[in-house]
Every structure is written in structure tokens, then in C-alpha cells.
Amino acid sequence: MTWETVIGLETHVELATRTKIFCSCTTRFGGAPNTHCCPVCTGMPGALPVLSRAVLDYAVKTGLALGCSITRYSKFDRKNYFYPDLPKAYQISQLYLPIARDGAVDIRTPAGDRTIRIHELHMEEDAGKLVHDPWTDRTQIDLNRCGVPLIEIVTEPDFRTADEVIAYLEKLRETLRYLGVSDCKMQEGSLRCDVNLSVRPMGSTGLGVRTEMKNLNSFKAIARAIAHEADRQIELIEEGKRVIQETRRWDENKDATYAMRSKEDAQDYRYFPEPDLPPIELSEGYLESLRAAQPELAEAKRERYRRMYGLPEYDCRMITSDRALAELFEGLVELGAPPKQGANWIMGEVLGALSARGKEPKDMALTPPTLARLIALVGEGRLNRNTAVKVFEAVFDTDGDVDAHIREHGLEQLNDDALVRETAARVLAADPRSVADYRAGKEKALGALVGQVMRELKGRADPRAVNAVLRELLAQ
Amino acid sequence: MGPIELTALELGAAIKKGEVSVVEAVQAALEAISAQDRTLNAFITVAGEQALDRAKRLQAGMKDASSPLYGVPMAIKDNICTMGVETTCASKILSGFVPPYDAAVVERLRDAGAVSLGKLNMDEFAMGSTSETSSYGPVKNPWDLDRVPGGSSGGAAAAVAAGLGWYAVGSDTGGSIRQPASYCGLTGMKPTYGTVSRYGLVAYASSLDQIGPLCRDAADCAAVLDVLQGHDRRDATSLPGRHDRPGWTGPSADYGHLLSGLTGDVRGLRIGLPVDCYGDGLDPEVRRAVLTVAEVLKSRGAEVVELSFPVLGYAVPTYYIIAAAEASSNLSRFDGVRYGRRAEHHEGLADLYRKTRTQGFGAEVKRRILLGSFVLSSGYYDAYYKKALQVKAVIKAAFDEAFTRCDLLLTPVAPTTAPRLGESLSDPLQMYLSDVYTVSVNLAGLPGLSMPCGSDSKGLPIGAQLIGPHFGEGVLLNAAHAFQLDTDHHERVPKGGEPS
After folding, report:
1. Does residue B202 lie within any of the structural domains?
2. A410-434 pLDDT, tens per residue?
3. What is the C-alpha separation between B190 and B412, in angstroms, rounded?
């Protein structure tokens, strides 16, 4: 029998708001334990939550970008359970009236295009962290993460392969980053994913018994966990056993999932409406203002770059891989740089410089006018490409003044024909052996001679001009 | 006449005139506390040194005094957080808990020049109607030491009635200010939900809790409420006042003008008498005394309208379902992990929780946590909690309808005067049922005032309740003030605990 895998995702995204969801503590990652907290986020008796306006804005923006309908009358609920990382012993979340519902995300996979339906999107608070100290055998609590805002995005069971899951997550990450609502760093936990998976005979329309997999902290882990879990379930069924509805934990080192808790142990969370927070009522005017402020997303940009600038698919993909890169590109074009030149610089020098420094595009100092000036100087023949790269390296970190740097280091291209001729003649006279080699038919000797002339002229000459002058002199 | 005999406003005026110093007032109160509180048990914490220090500073800063209550010593129920002063909610589980912050009302009181004498005894986590569920022992009624002062703000009522401070700030979730005020002969008020910030009030039932004053008369109540009420951004259920939202034309509070609004003029005021509140179960002496309020106000030009209010019969079960449900969640944070008491000799996490909560909570608190957990559990939620929310909406609508026909409602506060110690706890259901007149006010979020209107044959005070529409505090206080201009029930003071 052939089997079909059916997958649904629950993705938790930490929002990149400056402050926490219900208090004004910072959301910054790291920090000494229990230093980013206050009576509200540590659940002190008598402290009360107040919803951050920015969290609401971010959640609604995301809902709009995912094609959801926004709930005009939305509420928070309490999810009650005891755990030391949850200081109020309840999590403020949304069960009955989530902020957004019924969206759709189009994905592209090697096997074709698909649409993944979004069931709902809701806001909630994150919990703290337990840190086990093996030396003292004690568990310590760090409440810094308590109250960091999360949105949970729940899909319908619309995925059939790991490829689709990864394509969806990449699209989701790209969208969230473009919106500026999250940095989506899986390794820092700002994008976390639970995978609900079941299998069924191909062609069947019912759903099998599903398991939920947690602790998946990379795309690779997700892909491997899906493959393993599907195999495990198929094997069980083919052996005549049953799949048990349970939560399983992915063990990266063992490359396997193991059971955490079954449905029978599932807690009764005793959800009820959060009495400390009044319902959220959204006006049409508010939604309209957010709709109007939505940025152009990556896919729309790619389409536009192809259409307007005739850039190849690969280039479009590369320069829209990050909103800051796309904005740099658009800035260059606006300042008159030829689009293809702009794209080349971004794909080559800019990405190279960022990766060498381990920096994110959004953190770079370089601005469009600086890079546009470099591109223009090369275009006008006043700077050769190699020197331009050196200037780029020099100005990249501080967005330095290109013209000043060139002036101070005397880097402008030499267009003094007499000086090139004079230097070339001197080099030829000093290196009769290379001259003889060249004349004996060894083309490579010319390269060495060009190099010597360029060195004499401190790299400022146009290598093509040097080449032409040398050939001319050697032919005499 | 010593300062103890003055009302809070009279003392404030005497301080302003220099007839009494703030230090003298604090000393008089501390002497009264040390003489009587061993018997009454109204205080959990007496902060005598802090009070004297503050009195000296206030005396030195007299020229900045703007509030009529400047320098007047008072006390705070022990479920309101006070920075640096232990806040126990009368529970073992919070013993040793010193809040790192002040409640919003504590800040407001400080800004008005109040001096706190300490923290007042109460039913554990405000759950009870007698102040006997305190883990610090029961509070005694200064009118009769064999009787309860009411609850849960029983320490507050006993302290003010006995002259251990000029006013107190308590909390009212289902009658916890009004009923003890009634049992102890005081004027107390539960304001409109959302008009006093709950920030720093240890939550019992968040959608019903409201902080308010217990005072010697309506004018003191108005002055204290002028201090307590106001918008607070830290409480999302706090309601902005008229001046907080320009352009707003709907109903809203006009904070800070209650005292200046007391005219005693009640001409044309329509007093609603809900006939359902004067039937079975009401002590005839209480009925007679409460109805005198209507007579007195009528003689001042008010009208009396009879109303039927059958939905009130559902108020008690509705209240206990909602309050217990919210309490079960609100009290979950007391787990022994971060603050308060932690059980010793535990094995593992579940055992730590179990032992800490088993040892830390008293019987009444456990009863309500269990009840609340039950009504929220899956399979029962719709039948209990959801239904209770629906009934709550019906009760609210019934009040709205009533207030189209009258300006305020006059009812008893409790079916009887103060019961004897031990009498109520033996029958919790009976105790819950005695909340019949007060809980609906919290369910509807309305203001409710309790004031003395007579005594029974044993000499115990009887209270009358005035209920108003949202933001109707001014109407209620003015009616109470009018009644107090013509009567002297509010001037009676207990004589050393023996029935007079």
C-alpha cells in the first residue's frame, strides 16, 4: 500500500517589539538572568497586564499579510497550568476569539505550486526558561523571557511533504521579516515550530491519528523529523499496531522522536476569558491605516524587478532575500545606477562583506548614495573595478565618503597616456627576459609585464590601456 | 474632645488650623491600637515607627497640604500591596511577602498626605463574610466582642468603629466593604467597577474586585473616594474620567468632585424599593430600620417607587461561580516557587506544589479553589461558568432597566445584624446566602453604599444599602449625606464592646 503523509504546523513567532506584551520591560535576547523583568511579568500579587499597542499592530499586520480576516471583536483568555517557568500559573493567550482567522499562503516547490490555508493567528505571552545546573543539581529560573510577545500561526493540515513544510516556513520567515515584525531566528527561539503529522492510505480523505512533534529548532531538523515520524507511523500500521495520539520530542543527536506525553495525560487548561483585559475592538479606520502602511513583500518585488529591470530570476531572488538588500537595490536604481550593476554589487561585494563580518543586512551602515557613487565612478572610467572594490571595503563599515577616500589615497584612475607609455618602456627595458619570452610566443609573459606596470603605477592605471600599450611597444 | 472623636474631615481641618499636629493624631491612634487591638485583632501589621516618621515629615510640609485629608491617620486592608511592608492577605501562604511596589491607591493616598498606621486583618484572600477565616485569628466586633465584625474587610470596619484610625481602605468583591460597614455602624462604599485602580490589589475575583473606603460618615467617604478614584494606565479595566478623554460625550466619571457635590438636596430624587429584597429571610428589625431611610429622604422631598426585581434570586449562585472560577486561577500563582511560604520536605515539583498549597491555604480558600476549578473544567464550563456569565448579563440589564424608573435603589445590606463568632463558619452555604443583597451590585459593576440606619434590640448597628447606576457615586453619597443631616446613627460609637 502507498501512504500519504498529512501535516499541519503550529508556528510560534516572537515579535520584535521593543517591549513585552503586557508591561514595559525590554524584549532584548540574553541579559543576566531575571534582569529584564518587573512585578507584571514576574506575576507578583496584585500586578496587572496592559496590552501593548505595538503587539496588536504587529499581529494585525501579520494577519493581513497572510490573507486572514481580522477579528474586529477579539479577546484574551487564560490558559491555566502549573510550571515554574510560568509565574502566574496561567498563560494569557487567545482561545475563543483569536485576532485573525482563515488566511492562505501560496508556496512554490519543485513539485509545483500549492496553497496552505491558515486556520488562525493568535497573540500570547512567552514563558520563562528553566536552566538546570548539573554541578549543583539545581534548576534555576530565568524570567527574562516571560511576557515576550508571541504570535502563534496555525495552519490547516494541508502539507503532504517536508519540502512543502520548508517552503512554507521560508515564505513565512521572509514575510515576517519584510513586515519587520520578527527576526525569525530559529537558533534564538524567535521562530519555533510544532509539527502535527498523521499518515493515511493514498486516496483516502479521512485523517489518521496524529502525533505532535516539538523541539524542532532548524529546518534540517524539521525535514528529518518528518521523514522519521512518517516512517515510524507507517511501520506501526503495517505491523498491525496503532498510532497513539501523543506529543513527541525530536532528539537531534539520536535522529529520532520519543514520546513525551500521551493524550490521556493531557492537561485540562480550564480556559476562560481573561478578566483583567477588556475585549479588543478594532475600527475600520484602524484596519485601513494598517492596510495602507503594509510594505511591498518579497514576491511582489521579485515580480516587479523582473518586469521593470529585466533582471534574471536568480538575481531577483538574491536581492529580495532580505528587505534591507532590496531597499539598497531600489535606492541604487533611484540614484541612477544601472539595475544589473546594482544587483551585481549586492550579490558580490555586499553579501561578501556581510558574510565576512557575520552581519545581518539590516545592520549594515552602507547607504545607497555611497554605493551608487562607486558604481558611477566605475561607469565613468574614473575608477577601475579592482580599485573600486578596495574603496568599497574601506567605506563599507562606516558608510565613508567615497570621493574623500579616493582623494586621500590618490586612487583615481590614471588616464595619462604619456606616463603609461614611459613606465611601460622602462619595464620592458628592465626585463629583457619576459620580452624575449613573449616574442618567442609565450602569451603568459605579457601578464607578468602588465602586472609590473600596474605595480609601478600603484594600480591606478586602466589595465586594459596598459595591455594595449605593451602590445604596441612589443610589436615595434 | 480628643482627636479620636473627630471625623476624618474634622481632623484634617484641625490639623490644617494647627489645633492638632499630625504627630499627635498618629500618637492618639497608636495608643488606641495598643489599648484595644490585643482584643479586637483588627491589625495584622502595625507600622508605628513608619507612621510617626511620616507624620513628622508631613507636619514639616504642612504648607503643601492641598487635600482635606492631609495628615489624617488611616489603615489599609492587607490585600493591598505596600512597598516594604509585609502584605499577607491574612494567609499563611503569603507570610513574609514584602511587595517590591506600592498599589496605585497607596500612591494616591500618599500624594494626598495620608499616614498609614498599618495593615488590616481580613478573611483569608478576602474570602468570607465574617473575618474568621484569617490565619491571624478572627477579628472581634467592637460593638460586641462575641460577635463578628463582618467580612472580608472586618479588620478595617472594626478599626474605624473602635477609633483605631479615622478611615480605612478595603476591597469589595461581593459585599466585603458594605457588609462589615453595616455590622460595625460605618459608612462604606464599593465604587463603580473601573473607577479605582486595582493595580496592587491582590486579586480574588478580578472582574468583581473594587477598592473603596470605610468611614464614619458619608462626607468622609466622599473625601476618601475623591483621593482613590481616577484613571490608571496600569489597570486595563480602569475607566478614564471625563477630563481624560476630550470629546467624549458618553457616560463617564467626573473624578474628584464628590465631596464638593454634597448638598443634602434630594428633592425629586426617585428612590426605588425592590420588593424582592424585603421578603422572606429578612430580620423584621432590619426591615423596619432600612425603611426609615425612605421616610427620612421623603420628608426631604424624595419620591419612593416600588419595583420588582425577581432576577436577584439568581445573584448568589452566579456570584459564587464567577468569583470562585476567577479565584481558582488568580490564586494559582501562590505555588511556593518565588515568594511567600514554601513547604519543607518536598520531593519533586508536584509534591512542592501540593504540600505548599495544602499547608498554606485555609479551608475556605481551598473550598473556593476547588469549586472554581470544577466550574472551569472541560465538560462543565458551558453548564456553569458560561451560564453564569449569561445570567450576569441579565442581572446587569435588569439594573439598567430599574434605573430608567428610579435614581437609586434602597435595600438592606445583610438579612441580620452581626452574628456570633463561629456561628456562620459552621454552615458555609448559609453564609453564602447572607450575601444576597450585596453580590448583585458587583456582578453589575455598580456603586453601592452602606450606612447605619438604626440598631436592633441588642444595640447592634443595622445598615442600609443604596445602589446607584454606573458613576452614580455622587447621587448615593448625597442621599446618604442628606440622611445623616437628619439622623445621628452614624454618630453612635461602641462603648468598649458591651452592647449599649
Report:
1. yes
2. 777 777 778 888 888 888 888 888 8
3. 15
